[in-house]
């Protein structure tokens, strides 16, 4: 299992100073309700998360842009690739390849077992 990434918390007051372009779905790990902690100084979200390091399981995984099997496909991640787990809902995990993405959803069963499981 890869070592956890180190992300520092913002050192000053976080605030937006004008309009911010919303990135395309499947790029940055940013949703309306949640964002990667490394994006806190640049994007507004209701909550920020410090990701948990994980890996894709034994087979490649296609990121989905929504939590449905028929959702639009995003990037394909290689088997064993290091990823960051941001959120889980039901059988789905929202993951990213770091704060610059790509990001998307995979079924929890597509992730390698965690070392603390």
TrEMBL record:
Domain of life: Bacteria
Region Disordered, annotated ranges: 1-20
Name of this protein: SH3 domain-containing protein
Organism in which the protein naturally occurs: Qipengyuania mesophila
